[in-house]
Amino acid sequence: DQQVKQNSPSLSVQEGRISILNCDYTNSMFDYFLWYKKYPAEGPTFLISISSIKDKNEDGRFTVFLNKSAKHLSLHIVPSQPGDSAVYFCAASAEGGSNYKLTFGKGTLLTVNP
Amino acid sequence: NAGVTQTPKFQVLKTGQSMTLQCAQDMNHNSMYWYRQDPGMGLRLIYYSASEGTTDKGEVPNGYNVSRLNKREFSLRLESAAPSQTSVYFCASLWGQSNQPQHFGDGTRLSIL
Fold first, then answer.
1. How far apart (Å, rounded) are the C-alpha atoms in residues A39 and B26?
2. For residue A96, what are the CA distances in angstroms to A70, B82, B96?
3. Which residues of chain B are within 8 Å of residue A95 when distances are taken between CB atoms?
4. How many inter-chain contacts (A to B, CB under 8 Å) are there?
5. Chain B environment of A99 (Cβ under 8 Å)
């Protein structure tokens, strides 16, 4: 049972345009959401996060939107750059404590074409 | 500033051999994690250690053992490697215990023939 779903395995956009990556979740206990970026042969690197008490968080070109009623979040990258080409993982966690763990989606490969 | 260091980076094993993957972090983090990543799959949690002296199973613990040697080091052992354990293994660490991003190493690419 996949609790975090990224239904688009890949996305291709032109440089300068907006990239929108989507993520759906099924566990209503999730209250913290993260996006990671991963280049080939490297580990995932943290990009941006959002708590369930917010519906938007922005950091430079990256904005994450959370729709709790739809159990959906999205990552917007504006403007997209060729260096943004990577696999993007959505992750979620329930309330913290000693059992704090992340559940990851399968990832979306973003290709930004010059 | 090394962050999370994993050794080795690559390894090829024969079925039935044993191997220990090493992970060390220099960020004074309390919690550490082992994941595996397979093609078309996300990262799946194998084992984690919420604090020094404790370990717990994750989503896919079968065939693995772990040791939290001290606060810095968390190792993953394959006692009898199987081809199904061919994967990329990532170690991660976290300072606190909630609502913070985990920091990842660059992975160990393990092939079992």
1. 23
2. 23, 34, 9
3. 98
4. 68
5. 50, 56
Average pLDDT over residues B1-9: 89
Say yes or no: A102 contacts chain B, CB-CB below 8 A.
Answer: yes
Lowest mean pLDDT among A34-43, A49-58, B95-104: B95-104
Q: For the purposes of burial, counting CB atoms within 10 Å of the CB of B21, is it exposed (0-12), middle (13-18) or buried (19 or more)?
A: buried
Which of A41, A49, A104 minimises the CB distance to B101? Answer: A49
pLDDT in tens, A59-109: 999 999 999 999 999 999 999 999 999 999 999 988 665 567 889 999 999
User: Does the beta-carbon distance from B106 to A42 stay under 8 Å?
Assistant: yes
CB contact under 8 A, B45 and A102: yes
* The two three-digit tokens of residue B93, written as one number: 């660490």
Half-sphere exposure of residue A75: CA atoms within 13 angstroms, side-chain side: 30
Burial class from Cβ neighbours inside 10 Å (0-12, 13-18, 19+) for residue B60 reads middle
CA B77 to chain A, closest CA, distance in angstroms equals: 20
Helix, strand, or coil (residue A102) = coil
Is the predicted pLDDT of residue A1 greater than 80, yes or no?
Answer: no
Residue A97: its pLDDT value, please?
Answer: 54
CB–CB of A43 and B106 under 8 A?
yes
Per-residue pLDDT tens for B37-55?
998 888 999 999 988 889 9
Angle A56-A46-A27 from CA coordinates, rounded to 5°: 60
